Amino acid sequence: MTVKAGEQTKGSAAHPLIRLLLLQLGLCVALAVLFWGTKGRVAGYSALLGGLTCAIPNAWLAMRLVAPRRDPGARALLNAAYIGETGKLALTLTMFALIFALVRPIAALPLFTTFIVCQLATLAGLLMRGQEPHRDTDTTNGE
């Protein structure tokens, strides 16, 4: 399949976001298992909750960005990004509030360590995105 200049397929826009979310979930589970094995059950589920507190709001943002819109223009995408980021922040704060209010006992170090590592995965994904091999695109405009 060739993509003309200026066009983007629906799958190509979602694919990097899905890979990034899967990376975050993988890190979340790996760190939870690591903390569980080295520091015990409380550290393990605390780490899992920290990772989910990062991954779930990021999934909300990704869903807002790739959801079909009536207006495909830049303004609609920018509005979706603002709404998605606001929702992501609200979800993150709500999840942390619920964790600290309802989960006893909780280990703060594994919780925040996993949250920060998963957030750094987002940054790493954005930095590495420019290093992906380029796909062949047809820019001849049908000539």
UniProtKB/TrEMBL annotation:
Signal peptide: none annotated. Pfam families: ATP-synt_I. It is found in: Cell membrane. Keywords: Cell membrane, Membrane, Transmembrane, Transmembrane helix. This is F0F1 ATP synthase subunit I. The chain crosses the membrane at residues 17-36, 42-61, 82-103, 109-128. The keyword Transcription regulation does not apply. Its main location: membrane. The lineage of its organism: Bacteria, Pseudomonadati, Pseudomonadota, Gammaproteobacteria, Woeseiales. One of its GO terms (cellular component) is plasma membrane.
